[in-house]
Amino acid sequence: MASSILGLGFESRRFSINRNTGVPRPARRFSIGEPGVNEASSKVHRQFRAAHEGHLPHAGLDATRASTGVVWCTEQAGEHGFFEEPEKWANLGQDDIEGCFPRPKTIDISNAGREYGPTAGIKPLRVAVARLYNEMHRKGKPSQYTWENVAIVPGGRAGLIRIAAVLNNAYVGFFIPDYTAYNEMLSLFKNFAAIPVPLSEKDGYHINPEKIAEEIARGTSVILTSNPRNPTGRVVANPELAEIQDICRERATLVVDEFYSGYNYTSDCDGSTISAAENVMDVDEDDVLIIDGLTKRFRLPGWRVAWIIGPKEFIKAIGSCGSYLDGGTNVPFQEAAIPMLEPALVQKEMIALQHHFRDKRDYVVQRLRDMGFAIKLVPDSTFYLWLDLEGLPGPISDGLNFFQACLEEKVIVVPGIFFDLNPARRRDLFDSPCHHFVRFSYGPRMETLKMGCDGIERVVKKFRALEKRGQGGGA
User: Any stretches that span the bilayer, and where are they (predicted)?
Assistant: First the structure.
């Protein structure tokens, strides 16, 4: 029995046992058959397991805390020479945009900027954030955000960790696939239980009100989601978003990651953004926490300036816990961010951003379709494409091996496995519903994007030729 299993290439496969019969249950996989030699024993799969299932323990070390997502991919690319010659690589990240306001190249540091700042952020920036949301999403509404509804945090991850730290004992529902950093945040804290909610591939991974109602009915009291969604590029817009908020009102806290809110192509690139703030009835009563910042729509990730908006009671707790979690955001960059949030300037910025990225999205979708990729749903937000690899030759039909093949052509994509949040590592690698996807970013400048598409085309042609040759030899 053991030799036959090994002979089929399942030496690293873990089987579950039927407790009634003592016989191994049939091996499961998320989509296209069983893991064969290409997956179960390929080098990149072994590396992934080693990095994400831990090594021999050292005293005091949890070795399962490994790099995730883009960081892991960059480390792998570094082994192929990325750090030595990055200009020769299609690193599908972000780019400057023509028509946007110039970014500061120097920053004045005030006397206050030399000192520790308030852990909830400096008041002038909190005022500016509140004003921006009132102007863009709450015109004419009786309930308005004030500076007390805003906490400034040192980046999105720090903001999410602060929110997690103040949650009460609760079931926290999160959706699959979603942003990779949620995984560690959801596994670090013991004051809540994380409950995965798989979205349906056939529905385009769309979050609908019925799904939210179902989760609340089974006792989930906190809902966490990105909107617009990373990695699929889908957006939950009104009236569905308003209906979801109505369902959650007085029943569950809704935590919405809106870092891609500016990348909105649903309103013909008029500069309008997507936000749950529009549907909040009372800013101090509705349990809606919104997190955003300069990182994505202002393309300033290195500044580490983000914000959380919500009821004053939540914001007070979130501000306080910064004193022992992260110490707060640096003051000089907070001061420099204030003029960037003038509503008219933001509106103009968003128009330029949306036109720029929609054009690149259309280019990438056409190139990939010409290569034979099946793209059923064109993203209506973000700068990501959730790229389905089914239909490609077997050796590159899963995300990790496709990623590895792309590295050989100096192209970096992110395997879909990273977006299958698995905080307690309860599922095996091969059971992931995200395993046959990669996240493709159309963020970089057009020259880099063309270079990346050329590299992917070479990968596809190479493996199709090998597949054809193999079929011919068998005949």
Answer: none
